[in-house]
Structures are given as C-alpha cells and as structure tokens.
Amino acid sequence: MQDLRHTDITYLPGIGPTRAKILRDEAGIATWHDLLYYFPYKHIDRSRLYSIAELTTDMPFVQLKGRFLSFEEQGVGRKKRLVGHFTDGHGVMDLVWFNGIRYVTSSVKLNTDYIIFGRPSLFSGRINVMHPEVESVDSLSLAKMRMQPYYTVSEKMKKRGFSSRTIERFTSTLFSLLKERIPETLPDYLLERLHLMPLDEALRAAHYPSTADELSRATMRLKFEELFLIQLSIIRYARERTQRLRGHVFRVVGPLFNTFYARHLPFPLTEAQKRVLREMRIDMGSGRQMNRLLQGDVGSGKTLVALMAMLIALDNGYQACIMAPTEILAEQHLETFRTFLADMPLRVELLTGTVKGKRRQSVLDGLATGEVQILIGTHAVIEDGVQFRNLGLVVIDEQHRFGVAQRARLWAKNVEPPHVLVMTATPIPRTLAMTLYGDLDVSVIDELPPGRKPVKTIHAYDNRPDELYRGVRHEIDAGRQAYFVYPLVKESEKMDLKNVEDEYLRLQQIFPDLRVSMVHGQMRPAEKDAEMQRFVKGETQILVSTTVIEVGVNVPNASVMVIQNAERFGLSQLHQLRGRVGRGADQSYCILVTSYELSRDTRRRIQIMTETSDGFEIAEEDLKLRGPGDLEGTQQSGVAFDLRLANLARDGQLVQLARDTATFVLDADPTLSAPENKLLVEQLQAMKEGHENWSLIS
Ligand code: ADP
Ligand code: MG
Q1: Do 16 and 160 sit in the same domain of this protein?
Q2: In a shared domain, residues 349 and 430
Q3: Domain of 488, in residue numbers
Q4: Quick check: 205 pLDDT over 90?
Q5: What integer pLDDT is reported at residue 640 of this predicted model?
Q6: Are residues 507 and 418 in the same domain?
Q7: Ligand 1 pocket by C-beta < 6 Å: which residues?
Q8: Exposure on the CB side of residue 138, measured as CA atoms within 13 A
Q9: Per-residue model confidence as pLDDT tens digits over 351-366
Q10: For the chain, how are helix, strand and coil distributed in percent, rounded to 5?
Q11: pLDDT tens string 129-176
C-alpha cells in the first residue's frame, strides 16, 4: 500500500491543482493521510424516515419522503418567500425558502418522489422546515442511506464552491481506492488489552459509521491514540531527562532555615505548606533536578514556602532567585522578603528594568561573586549579562506569564541546571495538568491560613449604581479601600462597555472627597508603578484599573472589588481578580456588575463565582464551559496540541487511561526498543516532525 503521509492529495480523482491549493491552505489537507484525519464534526442519522405527523420542534434534523403538491410565492420585496406544500402521503406540511427561490422552482418537480431533509421549526403556529435539502430519491438511494458525515468548510472554501458534500465525495472516493487495510499504528498487545478497534476499521467508521455505537467506538480508539502518544512522549522525555541531568544535591537543612523557622516565622505554617516543603526537600536532596509545579490559590502562602526553599539552597552554598511577572510584584516580593528575613545576615537584591547604572552594576558584581544570595527580579533576570556564581534554585512566580522558552534560558545560568519551582495561582484542572505539565511533579497548597474570611461575592445589575456606590462608601468610611475593575481602557465605538478613563473621571465626581488612582496597561511602566504605589501606601482610597492588577498585588486593606462588565471576563480571570481582596482579617466583598440580559453560559459563570471560592472547582467549570484551548495559560505555555478528536475537558477519563497505559508501556520497555513497540517509536517520530515544540516542555 502507498505511503499515505506522502501521497499528494492531487492523486485523488476529482482534485486538481486549484482544489488542492484550497484544501491545503484552508483545511491543512495536503496528503491522503491528512484527508483521512480530517474528521467530520458530526453525523446525522439518515437511515430513518419520519412521518409528518410525528415531527416536533425539538428534533434536530429529520428526513421525510414525499412529493410536492404545489409551490406558492408569498410576500413582496425582501420579505418574499417560497412555500412548497409537501405531503408524505398522510399529512401535509410547508417547506419554506427565503433565498434561491428561482433555483428551487426551476429544478424541483411536482408529483415526483423526493427525500427532504432539515430542521423542523415553528412558523406562524405550524411546524415546517426552512431551507430543506431536497434530493431526488434516485441520487440518494434508500439502500445508501446511513449516518451522513458533516465536515467543517471555511467561508473561503464555501466561496470557492466547497461544501461538506464536496469533502464527503473526496473521503468516500479515498476509501473506495484504499483496497488494502490501512496499516495499524498501535501494537497488537495494546489493541487486545484495551479492546480497541483496529485503525483501518476506526478510520472508516469515523467517517462512515453504520451505527451510532460503531461511531463512538471508532472515535474512542482514535481519541485514545492521540492522548496516548502525547502521554508516551511526555513521560518518556521526563524519565530521560531525569536520568540525563544530575541535580544539585542539597544535603542539609542548615542554620539559615533553622533560624528562620525558629525565630522569624511570625505564624505557624499550615499543614499544606509543611507538606509542600517536605516534598521539595526530598526532590532537592535526591540528586535529580527538581521540576515542580506548585499550585495554590491566591493567598494560600506560596511566597513563604518559596522563601523557605530558597533558604535551604543558601544553606547548601547556592544562590537562589525568584522571578515575578511585573515590577510591582518583584518590588512587593523584595519588601516581603526583607520583612520576613529582618536582621538575618543575608544579601537580597532586586533586579528589574528600572535598576540601572551603578546600582545595577553592584547587583551584577554581587551575583558573580556570590555575595548576593537571593535575587528578586523580573524578566531582566534572564538577560545574558546576568551571571550567577552558583545558582541552585529558581522560583518562577505566577508561571502563566512566562513562556517555555524563557524558562529554558534560566537553565543555562549554571553548568548544571538549577532546581525549578514554578508557582501558579491559576489552578489547572487535573486532566489538563497531566497533559500541559505532564512531566512536572505537582504540589498543591489546598488550605488557606486560618482566620481568612471567604470573600462575599454578589451579582449586581448595572441599572442600580447608587446602591453600589453607597456600599463602597460604607467600606471606605470604615477605613478600607476599593478596586474598580473595567474591561477596556478607552471608550470603544463598537462596544458599550465601561472604560477606565471615563470611569476614573466619573468616580471622582461621585466621590469628590476621596482620592482615586488609575492604572492600565497603556500607561508607561513608571507611571503605572507610581499610581499603584499610591494605592498600596493608602494615599488613595480607590483604584480604577483594567486587569493589570490581576496578578499578585497585595493590599490587605482593600476590602471591596467592583468588577464592571463582569460578563466580559472569563472564570479564572474573575477568580484571580477576586483574589486581590480578602487578604486581611476583615470581611471583603466582590461585586460582579453585569447588564440584565445575559447568555446562559455567562449567567452560569457569574453564578459559579457567587457560589464557590474554590479555585480548583472554578478551573474545572472553566474548562467545561470554555474548552482547553481558551484556558488561560494554555496559549502562553508554548505547547501546541494537535488534538483533532480528543477534548481535554470532556475526555478526562481517557486522559487518565492514556497516562496509565503510557506508564505501563514504559515500565516494561523504558527505551521502547522491543520489537512490539517499533510502531510506537515510528508514531512518536511522526508526531515530533509535526511539532518541534515538544522537547521544550519543562
Ligand atoms: P500567595 O502567593 O499564595 O497568593 P502569599 O504568599 O502572598 O500568598 O500569602 C498571603 C498572605 O498570607 C501573606 O500576607 C502571608 O504573609 C500570609 N501567610 C502565609 N502563610 C501563612 C500562615 N501559615 N499563616 C498565616 N498567614 C500566612
Ligand atoms: Mg503570590
């Protein structure tokens, strides 16, 4: 049999150079293999004929056999429509067209049998079908009726005369040409073990199933394969890396850590914090390089845990550094660290874009000699000029703002790569984490420090602003501060959304005796920092901003957050924003302001926010509502998944099965050198050719 991956699509009858180009550009179909894997997005069961009497409007699609009794044009001008009176021999119904009227009247004959196909709807009190497909009984012989595939066709393709039917012709031609079986891609022992459908059968059934059940078994096999190969590649890579890279061994927990623990720690650690520290100590003492993801909700005390891990590095003669996504956060970390460490004999320095001249040189010198033991910084830390004497641990705070490539540059900062701790407050649902960070060990802080009061979250409509302002005024009078968050910076002509600059002026009018600061992403960094600092220091009572405050900012005195146009924000974004309040001992409030008319999904999002403050629950819901492609963090992660069928949100169990199976295979044959695994090696190779990115995940 020919090599499908290398058989050009033009070798298929019916596809010349012009069509081939459109297929390649618009649908990524260049070879026979590509066409085989261009799966229908749905099938419609055309094996069944309905009778007019049984139609209801909740049927998605129906198919009827019968004849047209007459056609009638109704209305004039743009309201003109064609009504065909259609009978199945028992009842009569109307089929309605608003466009293509001339085509229908000229091609459809009366008193001839047709199969009509479409979605029943209600029109002036009666069930009818608008714009049905009409086919003569001969062209679609009853014997041929089956589950019909529907393929995605882009707008451009439509303009060039492509329809789902066009693709259907191509795939059916292709299958009729493939007389031999399509070569299997999974070893027999796996097919048997998991009762999977062979590839040949699965591909044919994915396009042309004979029953819904066959379709679902075919899809399952293909989804499994996608997920399994990803897991196989991640786990193999992680194991290989573990063997290849030695990690710095932090043998002792020494005086710095112990002194800090005994004398400086202002409160007892939570059980979760202790557990995470133990997990990290085991990693860092093991002789292998630590690659750990630390997930913990906003305010769960990740920073402190990171600081203590850094002290262990110092105790063993290494330097440590922490990178934050913004200058404000880096500065806050510096302040936090200096407060925590107080008079301990340590040199902690800050390196950001604004640290310049002599100051910068002194930090750089200190890093090179090892005098600077802890470095806190932004992206500036990974610049080439920054050389450490002996970097042992890198902490990356709020990981989703850091790309994979940036992380990779950090590794080069020492001969042997430092231990890496990646911290994120955006909880990642388990199935996604298994895939996105499948090679990282994961620690979770699932407990907040005692005494925190959960933020009260309230949904408010935007037609009653006075009540809202009274509430805010009440909190500010009690000495608190408030955030007002908006989706846009400047007024947009297209969308009627609240925007920062207008609202800044308006809030000053509403609260003439209060001071208001404003920050948004279009301000210069220095300007932004200055405004932010005024709020941090309590000089202003209200901060008006876009989502730039989303990550990390800590103002415990702020007890109110008003999020305007909350319908414009995603769930995890709302959760991140809300995490800015409720950081002190006082009851805090988050008010989600929306318009009255909301889509079902939006209403559900807002409802979830008012019902739970559990970040993991929110992340799971987010994944369900939006799908993994949209999830914050996935785009920036630099990992491109080529999942054609599997869906990380819906196929959680399959992800687990894929992971377990990959582990099973690699346990038995770590190097995949056994003859029965030859197919897998070939598959991984083919996948790698498609995605250079894989080897970069870290
Ligand atoms: P995160 O980075 O996880 O959002 P932080 O590290 O900023 O959280 O911690 C939030 C606040 O909680 C900080 O003021 C910190 O000092 C405090 N904190 C951390 N751990 C504890 C603890 N075990 N008990 C009480 N307060 C804690
Ligand atoms: Mg933090």
Answers
A1: yes
A2: yes
A3: 456-612
A4: yes
A5: 43
A6: no
A7: 267, 269-270, 273, 296, 298-304, 425, 449, 554
A8: 1
A9: 998 888 999 999 999 9
A10: 45, 20, 35
A11: 999 988 887 665 555 667 889 999 999 999 998 999 899 999 999 999
> Which range has the worst mean pLDDT, 55-59, 84-88, 296-300, 305-309?
296-300
Candidate from 300, 303, 339 with most ligand 1 atoms within 8 A of CB, to mutate: 303
Residue 546 and residue 412 share a domain? no
Residue with tokens 């479409």: 118
Which ligand 1 atom is the nearest neighbour of the CA of 297? Answer: 3
Atom of ligand 1 nearest to the CA of 304: 6
Phi, psi dihedral angles at 352 (to 5 degrees): -135, 180
Closest CA to 645 of 152, 171, 167, 221: 221
Q: What is the pLDDT of residues 54-109, one digit of tens each?
A: 998 888 888 899 999 999 998 888 788 899 999 999 999 999 998 888 888 888 99
Residue by residue, DSSP assigns 57-109 as: TT-S-EEEEEEEEEEEEES-GGG-EEEEEEE-SS-EEEEEESS-HHHHHHHPP
Q: Are residues 421 and 534 in the same domain?
A: no
The number of folded domains in the chain is 4
Question: In three state form, how does the secondary structure of 292-322 look?
Answer: EEEEECCCCCHHHHHHHHHHHHHHCCCEEEE
User: Which residues lie below 8 Å from residue 3, measured CB to CB, with a gap of 6+?
Assistant: none
**Residue 262 DSSP symbol:** I
CATH number at residue 274: 3.40.50.300
Do 131 and 29 share a structural domain? no
441 and 319 inside one domain: yes
What's the burial of 29, exposed, middle or buried (CB within 10 Å: 0-12/13-18/19+)? Answer: buried
Q: Is 398 helix (H, G, I), strand (E, B) or coil?
A: coil
- The angle that helices 678-690 and 212-244 make with each other, rounded to 10 degrees, is 90
Averaged pLDDT of the chain? 86
Distance 298 CA to ligand 2 centre (A): 7
Average pLDDT over residues 108-116: 90
Q: Is residue 661 part of a domain?
A: no
CA of 299 to the centre of ligand 2 (A): 7
Q: Is 199 a domain residue?
A: no
**Whether residue 475 sits in one domain with residue 383:** no
Domain boundary among 161, 177, 193: 177
Domain boundary among 561, 580, 612: 612
Q: Whose CA is nearest to atom 18 of ligand 1?
A: 301
Q: Which of 300, 304, 302, 283 is nearest to 292 (CA)?
A: 283
pTM score above 0.85 = no
Q: Give the per-residue pLDDT at 498.
A: 66
